[in-house]
Amino acid sequence: MRRTQKTSFLYSFSVGILIGIVFIVITASFALWAFEHYYKGRAYRGVSVGHIVFDGKTPEEIKGYWLSKNEPFTRATFEFRFENEVATLSGQELDLGYDATLSATQAYQVGRSGYIFSDFYQKFIKRSTDLSPYFRWNSQLLDDVLSDLSSHINIPEQDALFQFANGRVVAFRPSRDGRRVDPDAAKKRFQDALTGVSSSRYVFIIHLPVERVQAAITTGQANSFGVRELIGRGYSKFAHSIPGRVHNVVLAASRINGLLIAPGSIFSFNNAVGDISAATGYQSAYIIKDGKTVLGDGGGVCQVSTTLFRAALAAGLSIVERHAHSYRVQYYEQAGYKPGIDATVFAPSVDLKIKNDTPSYILIQAKPNTSQMSLVFDLYGAKDGRFSQILEQKMWDISAPPPPLYQDDPTLAPGVVKQVDWAAWGAKTSFRYLVTKNGQTLQDQTFYSSFRPWQAVYLRGISN
After folding, report:
1. 306-336 pLDDT tens trace
2. From the CB of residue 98, how many other CB atoms can be counted at a distance below 10 Å?
3. How far apart are alpha carbons 210 and 182 in whole angstroms?
4. Element (H or E) spanning 321, and its range?
5. Helices 183-194 and 139-153 sit at what angle, rounded to 10 degrees?
6. Could you tell me if 145 and 190 are in contact, meaning their C-beta atoms sit under 8 angstroms apart?
7. CB-based contacts of 55: which residues, under 8 Å, 6+ apart?
8. Long-range contacts of 148-154 (CB under 8 A, 24+ apart)
């Protein structure tokens, strides 16, 4: 009897346990079915992107959210600048913004990897997953634009070259530091600008970072004369010069090019150029002689002395001797120069003399350009803090030119008329040359010119 009661109890208990297990399984299955049914086609609970919760949102809703976040970026404009070089890129060109499709896909796939235990952990144990939104742009386009800009901005560095032989510098090239756009720093500035994009601000100017690249061999290292840098430059134009005059300008400039002026010494233009005649390579060009325009050897040499005079003024050197022309020469008023900043020479009595009162040697570099009809003299030495100025340029006693002058020229065909000189107004001019250093005056000199009026001159062919 007792055994029957005990067996009955165990049976009832087992049945109860079984019924409970079945109930739990059914309930859990229903709950799981309800959970999966609710989140069918939607992101699971606890899923966020960029700390934005998308619990129960469909992939299209998630995508729509991030597309709306992209609107300010598609309207944004970025200007990359350095001095006069500018390149503009729009956000639309760069395909700038969040990858909405990727974010929606990643959010939806959380808990749907296909691995049972991993998905169970993701949905019911971890319960919170925050994904980082992927922000992208067309990096290749950005690289191409920066590369193109850099090709216009970058300047390669140049090592100095200095070769001395037979008393003059036969090869010279000053050192030059280069510059280079830093592309990595430029991209960093672009990325920093992205943080400021909003619906109210979408135009950004990005100043390109440009670094200096030093030459390995500087001008001072290349020589033992103390020549380190440019200290003065002179410039002149000689447009409308006849071929013979152009030839003489280039030849006379070459005779001075490469010369060194020692500290404390006086440079003589006439001594440096030497004999000016057909025997030394000069051609006939029109010169003023005895009040007439005639063909003579060396016409155009005063273009060279005038340009060197201007370089010496710019360098703040002491002018020991200078003579003005007797009338205004149109070549010396080209390029915007006022009358009176010229220097004539005529050996042996009329010379241009310049003293090197700096502590280092001075190297003369001549740069004639026949295609542009211009001449440049660069003076290299060592800057010592002096500052030169041309002040108080004045002109007075202006007088009109006389009537044109016609001269017979047997070298021209009969009836041919050729203008060789142009009318020039007479005037008196002056300018003050002031050089200071550390508050002290080194030069305070006034240069005067007295130009007589000059007539236009025409040459005409005559009949035999």
Report:
1. 999 999 999 999 999 999 998 898 899 999 9
2. 21
3. 6
4. strand 318-321
5. 130
6. no
7. 43, 44, 45, 46, 47
8. 148/87, 149/80, 149/82, 149/85, 149/87, 149/181, 149/208, 150/180, 150/181, 150/183, 152/85, 153/82, 153/83, 153/85, 153/179, 153/181, 153/208, 153/210, 154/178, 154/179, 154/180, 154/181
Nearest partner of 424 among 396, 388, 452, 389, judged by Cα: 452
DSSP 8-state code for residue 155: B
pLDDT tens for each residue of 337-391: 999 999 999 888 899 999 999 999 999 999 999 999 999 999 999 999 999 999 9
Average pLDDT of the residues in 51-57: 90
| Cβ neighbours, 10 Å, residue 165 | 9
Domain extents in the chain:
38-155+183-207, 225-460
* C-beta neighbour count of 295 within 10 angstroms: 17
Least confidently predicted of 199-203, 274-278, 307-311, 322-326: 199-203
C-alpha closest to that of 44 among 156, 162, 128, 151: 128
Beta strands in 382-424 (DSSP E): 386-399, 405-408, 417-421
